[in-house]
Design brief:
seven-stranded mixed β-sheet, 11 strands, 119 residues
């Protein structure tokens, strides 16, 4: 079983930065792809960024490329999302997720952390 706890959300002005952190527990962390997702009010959840187990492979949603950076520390079982040049449209609840080594789906989710960007 995997447990994920996010932190680092908050209120920031447009153009500002936030760093989200996700603390993971459970086995096989370094073998799991990890991702950050977000869901804004009235919208579907979307993937923001993902990283492979080694951290060598990453994916970014087009609208965050060049502004957001995903990273991980396998020794500490942590995943981070550095968000720079934030825009009001980045406002959402951000979730950390872990891919199951069995189903290959993102089956494990944190409780979410609110990010609000004011204009």
């Amino acid at each position: 079983q995997v447990q994920l706890v996010e932190s680092g959300g908050g209120l920031v002005q447009a153009g500002g930065s936030l760093r989200l952190a996700c603390a993971a527990s459970g086995r096989f962390f370094s073998e799991r792809d990890m991702g950050w997702f977000r869901q804004a009010p009235g919208k579907e959840r979307e993937v923001v960024a993902t990283t492979s187990g080694s951290g060598g492979g990453t994916y970014y949603l087009d609208v965050v490329k060049g502004r957001f950076t995903i990273s991980r520390d396998n020794a500490k079982k942590m995943v981070y999302l550095q968000m720079n040049s934030l825009k009001p449209e980045d406002t959402a609840v951000y979730y950390c997720a872990a891919r199951s080594t069995y189903t290959r789906q993102y089956d494990f989710w944190g409780q979410g952390t609110q990010v609000t960007v004011s204009s």
